[in-house]
Specification:
two-stranded parallel sheet, mainly alpha, single chain
Length: 125
């Protein structure tokens, strides 16, 4: 089973869909990095979007004892995704034309899989 999943197209990610994605991610971490889950040493970072800060999501994080790294208020430019995966994906998709959504998703998956752990760490420095 792939650890990557694309969000369905629509106007916005609502808290219920976000909770489903968190459940998917939690299951992937349990399968692939069980030591992080068992020792409660993993941390999660998301911004202050209404769906992310909802009582439903806060309760979910508490239920599974997930530590959340707080995102500074009014600071949209601090998302790690802005520094590592998005620029890599953008560079690889730029100037290309695709016939199907599956082509775009395939290249996106390939680019994301190619980012090493040290690549993520360097991007956060």
């Amino acid at each position: 089973m792939s650890i990557m999943r694309f969000v369905p197209r629509g106007p916005m990610v609502k808290k219920q869909l976000y909770q489903e994605m968190l459940e998917f991610l939690r299951n992937a971490v349990c399968r692939n990095r069980s030591e992080l889950w068992e020792n409660h040493t993993s941390m999660f970072h998301h911004d202050n979007a209404p769906g992310h800060a909802s009582l439903l999501i806060r309760s979910y994080m508490t239920k599974y004892q997930t530590s959340v790294v707080q995102h500074p208020t009014y600071c949209p430019d601090l998302s790690p995704a802005e520094f590592i995966p998005f620029p890599n994906v953008e560079t690889n998709l730029k100037g290309s034309h695709f016939q199907t959504k599956n082509e775009i998703q395939g290249i996106t998956k390939s680019v994301l899989r190619a980012i090493t752990e040290s690549g993520f760490q360097e991007g956060l420095q």
